[in-house]
């Protein structure tokens, strides 16, 4: 475990946390989807580096699934859906942006403060991956909780799952990583299709942002 | 004997920043103009502007006090001292340990304090606008700056700039994301403090957009020359700071002899050219923000600084 | 020897107070009382300095058969007491000097003169008290005499309410301290500080005492949320008393905290440091935000005291945290930073209050929005106020920067702490501290700029006269001390190191031997600062630039109307006011902290009625903490009031019921 290997893994995992913050910061739909695609790309790079460092070639498959499915297919699909339904308006967080970001920083501190003492016996690469993946999971949850819009909630859920994949790849020797990631991807696909095909009509009839904007008046 | 040489080198640095500051400003204006397909003013125009200004008569408003006339000297002195303490071509100069990064930032705060007071002195509303907006931007930039200092001192175990530069050019740094985050945060703080785009437009004199220009609206003649000189010095200070910390290679260590100084000087000039070019490209590619969005901008810098510090706690050998 | 002399001086001050009662009718009473206080406290100062610098190891103890028969009064002079005696008496000397001139403007000197020397005596006695009874007696004496001074002009609007809130909070604080001492003394009744220091306290008891001391000493110092009395009471008192209350009495409260928590309680727990850090950080940020919204000059200064007390408690919290982790050298650094700030704040806060008192005497106004342009009418006062503003904004090369720099240096040592909560908490507090420091500079640009610069906004401001020599002497003396403490910080640090050696068992490396008199808190490879060189460099730069300009530049100056972009308006009402200066900051921070809401009502075009701008702000701490407690107390008082109106039979049955209850308890206890 040389310094350079740790450093690159640290950069990629830290970059994943940074992109999760960028997801929290977005307030428009199209850039939100693009940033999510960026998160998937960073994740696949991170998993690929883990595959290289741990000599675990099956992780390359996970990386390519992340790249192909989450960085290309899902964003394109979401893009199409957003365009067709015409919901490319501003996405407003429940609490203001400043407090949300500060709370996000607190969550990162919390996950580091929880994970590092607990994993004191493990090797440093696994420790930092676990700490950062908990941070990404919590930030994904924060994103789901702090948004009104259903699409951003789905993206929050997917970023949460990205955190799980980071954790799974970081723990060296975890079995069935590829199978788990394929299963997760199928689950995501079904959730996205399910929400958008079956439940979307009645959800957006009541949560349509265009309607809300008309009724809200000059608050913003 | 050695101490005389050291004093000469320190004095040389003080003179160097004085000479280079208007050149950097002129170079920036030239590159911006060229990027906008104009010919732009000559490279040495700022020198001519300063000479022209000091030869003009000063017009002082009726209600102005002694503070108005004394402030340009105080501002200039504080910024000049701060600029001479930032390593440019060599580190570990004889007086470089008398002020660390926190003290340098505080010296800039002193200059800003007196500039804001000078803005309020004449009793016009423009001075008030400039002073109040300047004092809104400063408290947002300070916490971000402290987080950057914290990150750097966690890494380098020092706040003394010579030691930070020595650490950053050594092998222990590695490839750390915290350093990248600190760099971005420092660039954002530098843009805000120097009143560059997207925080303030240095080329405009519209009252709705100006912060720095509003405070110095009543100044003329040699006073205005000193304040403009001080602003160029401040920009040079920040550019030197960023290049010293994040591009630390090629700098001489004090006492290494004249060849090392010359090489250090050449590398420093190259860094200035590069940094100036990138700043000009950045400025011509984005628009100015609303004044009240500056807080979001600096809040992002604070977030990046905080994140950089937090991520450092997870790094190796900590 | 020193201690006996100091006790004698305190007794002389008390006698002076009694003398003042007898002499009130005479005009010569004012100079006698203030002159006497000046002389007595000026005599106490070299005694304290002598003990701190030359006799630090040799503690002195005195026992007097006053007070409770089985306890007596213990007095003790050690390095910590000597340091705080210096702070107290330095402030007292300056205030007495100032009052020699200011006291002539007092409408009812009989209300102020007897209590002033008593106040000084009380503060001195708190610092040298060595057992709980003497400590609390002196503490209450100090509170009551300052309350009497606050109520001196009780007919002025708001002063009676200020006095009432002050009395209530002071009594609450003394109650908390009484309970704390009771817990520490235990069932044996060992009230002497020696006994408390040597007896072992279990963790729960010590934590409870710690919490009570925070309530007691913290409320007197002005920690949020116990600060509400401070901005009411400090401005209500006469200006020299305000300076003493803000600059010195709050430091006596800090002394109480340091003495009990760092000295008497023994080894601290790690979370004590975190609580103190949190309270300090919140106080510093909230104090300065409140100050920014104020128009009244004295209330602004009082809120700034809250901020600076927050900074001091950040240093103390760090000292506690380091001490609980056995990092004694870092604890010494943090404690040095806190104590240095104690000295600094007493210097520049007194200076600023003296300046505001001078403005009040010259113009009769405290509201900044009715002042302006005073730099032309009162140039010396303006200069002194400028030095004070620069010092409090922590700008080099003055003293405020040094203590802030030391605090930041101790924050930078915090990664050595082993508790993760502390490791993350301290950087957050560092960000708050930086925010508070920058906002303080903004606030003083506003205070100095709106009051002294610009053009006069009212006739009173245009007709102001410079104040008398005593006031100027006091202000310039304090300004000189601010500069000296900034340029020669090594002297102060070495003096404080004797105190930290006693309290945490370590001290910072000796500073006076460093090259060029710079200060090096930990190691030269870590960081260093040289105030003298920075000051010399700035002087050199000013000199060089002035010479160059006067040599090669035109020296012509012409006066004319202000340029103002070609539309000069002669009315002084077009200037920025205090409210407009603070508006961007109010929009940034005020919407969250004060729930500030702005509403503009513009008339339609053609309508000649004026537009209205309304700003609503709420003091959330008052609404969330104080009003509910007030309501509960009022409710209980109403209910209990019914006990006043019972018949004889009901009183007898009450007595009977309590008797039966006591007998029951006795029976069950067996």
Record keyword descriptors for this entry.
heterotrimer; B: 318 residues; mainly alpha; two-stranded parallel sheet; 69% helix; globular; C: 670 residues; two-stranded antiparallel sheet; two-stranded antiparallel ribbon; 26 helices; 5 strands; 70% helix
Describe the structure.
The complex is a heterotrimer of chains A (220), B (318) and C (670). Chain A has 220 residues and is mainly alpha-helical. Chain A has 8 helices and no strands. Chain A has helices at residues 3-25, 29-54, 58-85, 97-118, 124-145, 150-170, 177-207, 209-216. In chain A, helix 2 (29-54) runs parallel beside helix 6 and helix 4 runs antiparallel to helix 5. The termini of chain A are far apart. In chain A, 40% of the residues are buried. By secondary structure, chain B is mostly helical. Chain B has one domain. Chain B has helices at residues 2-35, 45-54, 66-84, 101-121, 125-156, 161-168, 177-193, 212-215, 221-246, 258-285, 294-312; strands at residues 58-61, 90-91, 252-253. In chain B, helix 1 runs parallel beside helix 10. Chain B is globular. Chain B starts with a helix and ends in a 6-residue tail after the last helix. Chain C is mainly alpha-helical and 670 residues long. Helices cover 70% and strands 4% of the residues of chain C. In chain C, the strands form 2 sheets. Chain C has a two-stranded antiparallel sheet. In chain C, strands 4-5 form a two-stranded antiparallel ribbon. In chain C, helix 17 (399-412) runs parallel beside helix 20. Chains in contact: A-B, A-C, B-C. Chains B and C meet through strand 1, helix 3, helix 4, helix 5 and helix 9 of B and helix 16, helix 17, helix 18, helix 22 and strand 3 of C. Strand 1 of chain B pairs parallel with strand 3 (557-560) of chain C.
């Amino acid at each position: 475990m040389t310094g350079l290997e740790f450093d690159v893994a640290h950069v990629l995992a830290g970059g994943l946390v940074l992109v999760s913050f960028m997801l929290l910061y977005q307030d428009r739909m199209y850039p939100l989807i693009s940033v999510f695609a960026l998160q998937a790309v960073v994740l696949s790079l991170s998993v690929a580096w883990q595959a290289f460092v741990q000599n675990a070639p099956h992780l390359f498959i996970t990386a390519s699934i992340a790249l192909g499915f989450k960085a290309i297919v899902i964003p394109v699909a979401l893009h199409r859906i957003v365009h067709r339904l015409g919901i490319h308006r501003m996405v407003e967080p429940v609490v203001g942006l400043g407090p949300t970001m500060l709370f996000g920083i607190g969550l990162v501190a919390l996950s580091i403060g929880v994970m590092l003492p607990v994993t004191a016996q493990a090797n440093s690469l696994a420790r930092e991956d676990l700490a950062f993946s908990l941070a990404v999971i919590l930030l994904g949850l924060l994103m789901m909780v702090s948004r009104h819009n259903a699409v951003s909630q789905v993206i929050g859920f997917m970023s949460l799952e990205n955190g799980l994949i980071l954790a799974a790849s970081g723990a060296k020797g975890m079995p069935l990583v590829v199978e788990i990631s394929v299963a997760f991807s199928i689950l995501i696909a079904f959730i996205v299709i399910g929400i958008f095909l079956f439940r979307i009509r009645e959800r957006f009839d009541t949560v349509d942002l265009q309607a809300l904007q008309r009724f809200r008046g000059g608050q913003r | 004997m050695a101490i005389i040489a050291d004093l000469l080198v320190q004095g040389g640095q003080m003179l160097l920043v004085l000479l280079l500051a208007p050149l950097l400003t002129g170079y920036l204006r030239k590159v911006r103009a060229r990027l906008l397909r104009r010919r732009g003013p000559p490279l040495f125009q700022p020198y001519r502007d300063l000479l022209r200004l000091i030869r003009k008569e000063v017009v002082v408003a009726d209600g102005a006090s002694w503070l108005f006339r004394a402030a340009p000297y105080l501002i200039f002195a504080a910024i000049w001292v701060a600029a001479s303490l930032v390593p440019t071509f060599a580190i570990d100069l004889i007086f470089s340990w008398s002020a660390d990064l926190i003290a340098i930032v505080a010296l800039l705060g002193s200059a800003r304090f007196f500039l804001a007071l000078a803005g309020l002195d004449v009793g016009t509303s423009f001075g008030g606008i400039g002073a109040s907006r300047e004092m809104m931007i400063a408290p947002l930039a300070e916490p971000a700056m402290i987080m950057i200092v914290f990150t750097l001192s966690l890494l380098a175990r020092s706040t003394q700039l010579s030691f930070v530069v020595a650490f950053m050019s050594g092998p222990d740094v590695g490839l750390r994301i915290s350093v990248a985050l600190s760099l971005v945060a420092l660039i954002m703080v530098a843009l805000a403090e120097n009143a560059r785009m997207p925080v303030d437009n240095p080329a405009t004199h519209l009252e709705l957009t100006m912060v720095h220009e509003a405070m110095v609206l009543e100044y003329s003649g040699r006073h205005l020359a000193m304040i403009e000189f001080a602003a160029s010095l401040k920009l040079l200070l920040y550019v030197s700071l960023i290049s010293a910390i994040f591009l630390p290679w090629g700098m001489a260590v004090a006492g290494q002899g004249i060849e090392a100084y010359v090489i250090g000087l050449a590398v420093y000039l190259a860094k200035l050219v590069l940094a100036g070019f990138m700043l000009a490209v950045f400025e011509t590619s984005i628009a100015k923000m609303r004044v009240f969005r500056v807080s979001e901008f600096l809040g992002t810098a604070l977030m990046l600084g905080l994140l950089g510090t937090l991520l450092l706690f997870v790094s190796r050998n900590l | 020897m020193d201690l006996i002399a100091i006790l004698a001086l305190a007794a002389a001050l008390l006698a002076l107070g009694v003398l003042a009662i007898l002499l009130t009718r005479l005009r010569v009473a004012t100079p006698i009382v203030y002159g006497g206080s000046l002389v007595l406290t000026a005599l106490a100062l070299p005694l304290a300095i002598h003990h701190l610098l030359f006799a630090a190891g040799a503690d002195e103890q005195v026992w007097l058969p006053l007070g409770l028969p089985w306890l007596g009064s213990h007095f003790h002079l050690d390095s910590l007491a000597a340091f705080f005696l210096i702070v107290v008496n330095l402030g007292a000397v300056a205030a007495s000097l100032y009052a020699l001139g200011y006291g002539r403007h007092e409408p009812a000197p009989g209300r102020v003169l007897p209590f002033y020397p008593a106040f000084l005596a009380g503060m001195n006695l708190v610092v040298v008290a060595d057992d709980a009874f003497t400590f609390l007696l002196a503490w209450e004496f100090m509170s009551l005499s300052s309350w009497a001074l606050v109520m001196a002009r009780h007919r002025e609007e708001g002063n009676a309410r200020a006095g009432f809130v002050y009395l209530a909070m002071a009594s609450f604080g003394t109650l908390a301290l009484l309970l704390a001492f009771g817990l520490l003394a235990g069932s044996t009744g060992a009230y002497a500080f020696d006994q408390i220091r040597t007896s072992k306290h279990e963790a729960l008891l010590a934590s409870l005492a710690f919490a009570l001391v925070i309530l007691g000493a913290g409320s007197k110092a002005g920690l949020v949320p116990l600060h509400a009395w401070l901005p009411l009471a400090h401005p209500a008192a006469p200006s020299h008393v305000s300076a003493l209350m803000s600059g010195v009495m709050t430091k006596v409260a800090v002394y109480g905290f340091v003495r009990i928590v760092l000295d008497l309680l023994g080894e601290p727990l790690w979370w004590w440091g975190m609580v103190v850090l949190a309270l300090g950080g919140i106080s510093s940020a909230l104090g300065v935000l409140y100050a920014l919204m104020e128009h009244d000059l004295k209330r602004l200064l009082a809120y700034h005291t809250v901020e600076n007390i927050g900074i001091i408690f950040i240093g103390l919290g760090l000292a506690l945290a380091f001490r609980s982790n056995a990092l004694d050298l870092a604890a010494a650094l943090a404690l040095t930073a806190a104590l240095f700030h104690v000295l600094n704040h007493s210097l520049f806060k007194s200076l600023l209050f003296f300046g505001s008192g001078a403005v009040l005497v010259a113009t009769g106004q405290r509201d900044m929005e009715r002042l302006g342009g005073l730099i032309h009418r009162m140039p010396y006062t303006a200069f002194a106020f400028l030095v004070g503003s620069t010092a409090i904004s922590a700008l080099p090369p003055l003293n405020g920067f040094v203590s802030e720099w030391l605090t930041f240096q101790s924050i930078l040592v915090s990664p050595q702490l082993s508790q993760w909560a502390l490791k993350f908490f301290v950087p957050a507090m560092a960000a708050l501290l930086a925010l508070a420091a920058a906002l303080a500079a903004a606030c003083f640009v506003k205070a100095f700029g709106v009051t002294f610069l610009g053009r006069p906004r009212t006739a009173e401001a245009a007709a102001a006269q410079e104040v008398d020599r005593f006031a100027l002497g006091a202000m310039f003396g304090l300004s000189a001390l601010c500069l000296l403490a900034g340029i020669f910080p090594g002297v102060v640090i070495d003096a404080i190191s004797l105190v930290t050696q006693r309290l945490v068992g370590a001290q910072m490396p000796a500073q006076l031997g460093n090259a060029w008199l710079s200060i090096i808190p930990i190691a030269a490879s870590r960081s260093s600062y040289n105030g003298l060189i920075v000051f010399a460099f700035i002087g050199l730069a000013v000199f060089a630039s002035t010479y160059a300009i006067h040599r090669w530049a035109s020296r012509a100056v012409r006066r004319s109307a202000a340029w103002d972009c070609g539309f000069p308006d002669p009315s002084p009402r077009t200037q920025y006011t205090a409210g407009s200066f603070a508006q961007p900051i109010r929009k940034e921070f005020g919407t969250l902290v004060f729930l500030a809401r702005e509403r503009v009502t513009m008339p339609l075009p053609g309508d000649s009625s004026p537009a209205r701008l309304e700003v609503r702000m709420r003091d959330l701490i008052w609404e969330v903490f104080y009003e509910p407690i007030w309501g509960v107390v009022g409710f209980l008082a109403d209910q209990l009031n019914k006990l006043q109106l019972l018949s004889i039979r009901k009183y007898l049955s009450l007595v009977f019921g309590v008797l039966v209850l006591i007998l029951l308890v006795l029976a069950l206890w067996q």
